[in-house]
Amino acid sequence: MARKQADPAAVEADFYRVKDLLRAEERQILDRVREFLVEKVEPVAGELWLRAEPPLRFIPDIRELGITGTHADDPAVFPRRYLLNGLIGMEMARVDPSFATFFGVHNGLGMGSIRVCGSEEQRKRWLPQMVRWEKIGAFGLTEPLVGSATSGGLTTTARREGSTWVLNGEKKWIGNATFADLVVIWARDVADDHVKGFVVEQGTDGFAARKLEGKIALRSVHNAHIVLDGVRVPEENRLQHANSFRDTARVLKVTRGGVAWSSTGCALGAYEAARRYATERIQFGRPIASFQLVQDLLAKMLANITACQSLAVRMAQLQEEDRLDDAQAAMAKMFCTTRMRETVAWAREVFGGNGILLEHDVARFFCDAEALYSYEGTRDMNALIVGRAATGHSAFV
């Protein structure tokens, strides 16, 4: 009897039907985003990655989709639940993690800092322009010698002189900063030793952003090394509700949740590339998708993705209820990026030697995963946040 051949498209990668939790109008928005990504971003994602070109060409399309910012930022924005926002981020990374990061730096870190830590006047001044992408945002926290220790070890300083603040120091790995109009810089106030936030406008004297070269991950994202040499920022550009690192952490709590969704999308994109390849690659007269070892890899990948989606959905529900805490966000980031890293490695394995060629999308997902695994707090640092919540004891140095 001939062995029955399954339709490779029959099993939806959304194995537990997470998208069924969306309302009809939300599904329409997600479908529009997916259509844009598949028709416009996907065909050029590898080319942009190879050339290290940021996806600025898509700004008019993003603006047209109306998925930037919140209804509070601009009444013209359709109100969106956290679940829809998360699934939009997942879909972006499913096609191109670089695109998802480019969007997330502006929409999450840049706008989020102003939304969470800015005054009402500051939110009205900047956020509507950022919703329309008339101003692009960036977020400057990490430094050349300070990564995980940013909560207490920032070397960039802020000194007040009358109605002006003077910033000195360096930042590194700052996405979008080479072309951003507004860069949120976190610096240590020399007067009280607390971390404060400042919006530095592009072109300010003493501010220089140099693109980091030689990256092997998220190449379409322009990460910059920033030098702040006597940069003068008016008091009106100091984020009025950013007075300690606890306020910075309020921004990171939200964006770590976004990384959980993006890493799930990256894993999903790698899985789909591997499944597609497995159905087309013929060895020993049969598609390799019919081999037990390949099916085992695909099943493990799908299980990882489904577990990450399930965790992220519950996280979105807690956000909707305003009950998500730092440790829960840290767990989501820690777990989903770890499972992503495992999944993209299995996906690359399905391809054999072909898996290191850029013409096969899995190579791009495999490389990009390393950046998602590291930014917004390493796995280890997020694990310690969870461990502190679990035990009541801090293991931070």
TrEMBL record:
Q: Which SUPFAM superfamilies match?
A: Acyl-CoA dehydrogenase C-terminal domain-like (SSF47203), Acyl-CoA dehydrogenase NM domain-like (SSF56645)
Pfam families from the xrefs?
A: Acyl-CoA_dh_1 (PF00441), Acyl-CoA_dh_M (PF02770), Acyl-CoA_dh_N (PF02771)
Q: Which cofactor does it need?
A: FAD
Annotated ranges, domain Acyl-CoA oxidase/dehydrogenase middle? 138-231
Family listed: Belongs to the acyl-CoA dehydrogenase family.
Q: Which residues form the Acyl-CoA dehydrogenase/oxidase N-terminal domain?
A: 24-132
Question: What are the protein's UniProt keywords?
Answer: FAD, Flavoprotein, Oxidoreductase
Q: Which InterPro entries did the record assign?
A: ACX4-like, Acyl-CoA_DH_CS, Acyl-CoA_Oxase/DH_mid-dom, Acyl-CoA_Oxase/DH_mid-dom_sf, AcylCo_DH-like_C, AcylCo_DH/oxidase_C, AcylCoA_DH/ox_N, AcylCoA_DH/ox_N_sf
- UniProt name for this protein: Acyl-CoA dehydrogenase family protein
Domain of life, source organism: Bacteria
